[in-house]
Amino acid sequence: MAEQQPVVFALPRGGVPVGFEVARALGAPLEILAVRKLGAPGNPELGVGAVAEDGTGVFDRRSAEMLGMTQAMLDATVERECDELRRRVERYRDGRSPIPVSGRTAVIVDDGLATGLTDLAAVRALRKRGARSVVVAVPVGSSSAVSMLAEEADRVVCLTVPQQLRGVGMWYRDFAPVSDEEVVALLAQAADATGPASSPPATAPPPRAAVPDGGEAPAEALTIEVGDVRLAGTLTVPASARGLVLFAHGSGSSRLSPRNRAVAQSLQQAGLATLLVDLLEEREAARRELVFDIDLLAGRLEALTRWALSQARLQSLPIGYFGASTGAAAALRAAAALGATVSAVVSRGGRPDLAGERLGAVVSPTMLIVGSLDGEVLELNRRAAASLRCPHELVVVDGAGHLFEEPGALEQVAEIAIGWFGRYLDGAPNTALAGVG
After folding, report:
1. Percent of the chain with pLDDT over 90
2. CATH of domain 208-435
3. Which of 69, 103, 260, 420 has the fewest other C-beta atoms within 10 Å?
4. Residue 238 confidence (pLDDT) above 90
């Protein structure tokens, strides 16, 4: 396909992680094509049309009429969604021009097809921009959507076409919302890998942590050998640190996660050292079965804990874990294995249920933090809490979703974490010799 000079166009936000992997496999540049669904009145999740960033639109008039949607209602919906499209384009491209597609093959990637209307709008928009051929590539889709798109795209690649879709999210083990920050980070990473097909977003300088005395603790980039792999990490040790918190990231995330970095900075300001490490090498992160291999991730976290306790400047610090999403399960499994070596665990929007039978073996005091709007995960946390035998609490952040993107939500997470670590790390005995060996 290289001779066709493909450009991968991911539909944000959910299509961007999928598009990132497709672009990497093809060695092609990754671009976004902003498209918004036009929702039905009173049920915005039910799509009756879609509009692309250049104004190209598609509209299922029959469905809209059945739902009582007037032309005035449609116009108002289009205007509202176009405002969001403009915001996303400005945020994601940061002023750069879109990658040219004239005479090239455009590969549209989404996380799945329900009605297929957003992808149809994307196909038509790229035709207008002069694409030589247009391919739609998705992991899962309804048969009706695949058939419709096959009429307009040059090719439709859909790995799974179930008899009944019942929603795209049903076909993912982790269908957590994708944030703007993740989209920007993936676009930057893809640009670094393929070269400047257009001006890539500027990369942020390494973070520096403010500490209580008003100075700054430098963030130190590390490569830590664990068995036959080399894991990239960032260590920040404030002056007079009173504990060390190791972060276990969730699926599809990394040590560069803006949310975990924000929490880590708050912990650093409270006098806690932090170690953010990718538990998988880059080549491993592309394998989805490893992303969800809780035993593997927990083993890596255990090894990193042993490494930290072998370092002269860290070995006197009590250890805490901060886990997010699937990383919370890895943190709890590692804590179960290491016993009193781990003084406290905090889970943010976590999947402690994936720790399975090891939950009952955890002795580390555990805090579970979940957003009130994250209904399924909240129920999973309630069930997991019933299996814990250690001191534990479940705190629900009102009005917060899975990613805690709402104003003030992540600050609440950091405040709760600081309180929990302060309660159980301050004055906790270091048990490196007894618990790690």
Report:
1. 57
2. 3.40.50.1820
3. 103
4. yes
Q: Note whether 131 and 102 are within 8 A (CB).
A: yes
Instruction: Name the nearest CA neighbour of 270 among 240, 250, 292, 296.
Output: 240
Identical topology for domains 2-194 and 208-435: yes
Q: Spell out the residues 6+ positions from residue 153 whose beta carbon is closer than 8 angstroms to its own.
A: 108, 123, 134, 135, 136
Q: In this structure, which CATH number among 3.40.50.2020, 3.40.50.10860, 3.30.565.10, 2.70.98.40 belongs to the domain 2-194?
A: 3.40.50.2020
User: Could you tell me if 117 and 58 are in contact, meaning their C-beta atoms sit under 8 angstroms apart?
Assistant: yes
Asked whether the predicted pLDDT for residue 127 surpasses 80, the reply is yes
Answer whether 329's CB lies under 8 Å from 355's CB: yes
Locus of tokens 């005091």: 365
pTM: 0.55
Between 56 and 342, the higher pLDDT residue: 342
- The residue ranges of every structural domain in the chain are 2-194, 208-435
Helices (H) and strands (E) in the chain, counts: 14, 17
